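Today's session is about reading a structure prediction critically. Students often jump straight to the picture, but the first step is always the sequence itself: look for stretches that repeat, for charged clusters, for runs of hydrophobic residues. Only then move on to the predicted structure, which in these notes is written as discrete structure tokens rather than atom positions. Here is the chain we will use throughout the hour.
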Amino acid sequence: MSLRVNNLRLPVELPEARLLSAIAQRLGVQTDDIESWRILRKSLDARARRDLQFVYSVVVRLADEKSSAQQHSNSEVSPYQAGEFNDPPAGKRILAERPVVVGSGPAGLLAAYYLALRGFRPLILERGRPVKERVPAIRSFDRGGPHDPENNYLFGEGGAGCFSDGKLTCRMSGPDVDWVLESFVRCGGKPSITYEHRPHLGSNRLPLLCRNFRREIERHGGEYRFGCRMEGIDLADGRIRGLQTSGGYLNATHVVLGIGHSARDTYEMLHRTGIPMEPKAFQLGLRIEQPQAQVNCWKYGREEYLDLLGAADYSLVSKGQRDVYTFCMCAGGVVIPSVSEPEMFCSNGMSNSRHDTPFANSGVMITLQPEEFGSRHPLAGVELQRRFEATAFALGNRDYLAPIQAARDFLQQRAPCSADRLPSSYERGTRPADLSQVLPPVVIEAIRKGLPVFDRRWKGEFLKDATLTGPEMRGSSPVRIARDRETRQTPGFDGLYPVGEGAGYAGGIVSAAVDGLRSAREIVREFSPLAQDAAVSSPL
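Below is the predicted structure for this chain, in token form.
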């Protein structure tokens, strides 16, 4: 019998190997009585700044089963039975065509990976370029080069997730989440991501993981087609029968639609086709940036904690008529552009695994509801994003510079000085601007109420030397594509499986990956793989 032991605490300065003796003490046994153990969960308790502790939950197997049973009365020790991953046998129906996955972001990637492992040899369509070509294109843009609408921070192998910091925090739990995290480990992620409370891969490691996933998918018979944009859906009698793409027509009966939250031209095509969709609440706001040393000083009450733990992070919420909250906090990170269309500007943040820049940045966000978009049109949220991103582009000298303003000036509604040289990690450059122009008034008002609350909690240290850039509009999708809860297909479009953030059913790398996995599993449950010697889909 296995036991789950909760609330084991170790000061952060002690080695993790000390956990074994802590487990034995909690269970009232000798260390030799412990047959095996592993960490289920690890988090940091930072409430006492001078006494930071790691808090663990572990699963333990004792050599003496009778001894195990005696521990059940302890409130922090309970029997443990791991949930079983749902990996159904393949169905009986034969697929006429191999499944097509549109988009290689987290949702499409894990859907394709599962289908490949099960022998379905998926075809992955990606409008952008592979990571080997994506990285130099992004570097060129950051240094002042032109914007490529098909090869940028948002489009290309790995999708927006490939350059969005690599946070794997997820409110979900269970076997599907475990399978996704273990898949990341198999493809190059560090093993600790399976149990850390706030696992982080780092933007420098994600491209390698995406490449490793691709190699595994191809090794199992899958195929990638880069520079191939889906441009239309061919429907007959309520069923998908093919796709129009920039590379030609594809026979396709089952399509996993993982387009991401920034494929606005694809949203428009889907709406024209009659795909049922609706506007969805989404996050928007500004990105705040401070010296990382300032954050470290606030969170760590002892100097040695920085060497032990690295750059400190934070998470803040201001409750009120409209909640304001920090989002995607990047310790030791950089502000980056989140731009998919020409002549628009949007900000985001990322950090490498080392968290080694002198800057900390985070989104300061609110959630805007569909009734606040100004229209009932399904794409009203997209048009709202475009309107303010175009304003930000103009404020950035029409050259993708980041509009920037000192946080104190923003709060006091002081016009920025054009001669200001405010510090920022945004590589392409910044331009002083009045940021009240880059968001709807209701959002600006909420942020102006929320920031002073954050500052009071930090006793005046949160806004000192802080700057704001914006807008930040890509925290989540403003659109939800309809799908049936059981079949996971769009009603009236049999064979179409909308998944992930772009479909409006996820918010982050892990939840998007799980969503893609679950739709791929429904294909496996119903069908058997296309025979190995059967013809594969190809452009006509």
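Discussion point for the tutorial: The mean pLDDT is 93.
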